[in-house]
Give the backbone structure.
Amino acid sequence: MAAPKILFLAGDFVEDYEIMVPFQTLLTLGYQVDVVCPEKKAGEQIRTAVHDFEGDQTYSEKPGHNFTLNADFESVDVSQYAGLLIPGGRAPEYLRLDERVLEIVRHFFESNKPVAAVCHGVQILSAAGVLKGKRCTGYPACGPEISLSQGEYVQVGVDESFVDGNLVTSPAWPGHPAFLRDFVKLLGAEIKL
């Protein structure tokens, strides 16, 4: 039996931890993970940024690692994927302008497949028009966007996640343990402690 496939939507200046940690964790658990970026092909790289919480009014940003894409955006067949993950960082602010990105997101919601978005990833969900009637979280600065798209912003701790139906969200990378645990549960994995 083939491993379930997970699709990541990413772009330049995606948050480093929010792409690296979920990518490696899901691979460790046996999932096939395809990371794509509009206008880029497998083997090309995207730049990442490290967002840190150092006591300022908002996060700081530092250069991260380059991330090598392993699939082509143009050849994505959404029917082949069991779930979608959208990391945060600055990439969502411009990825949400790409109509194909929004179509991909809508497919996962229309098909009731698991979707995970962390931090600013909810900006793409908001732009896709899929948050109406949904409760979710994200980086607090995205709360107004969630509300404007007729969703309900839920404030949780930075190390927590929130699940509503097929959607799991988290405010930022410190929530990865809860966020990824909830996502794989939505994918059908059984977590035993």
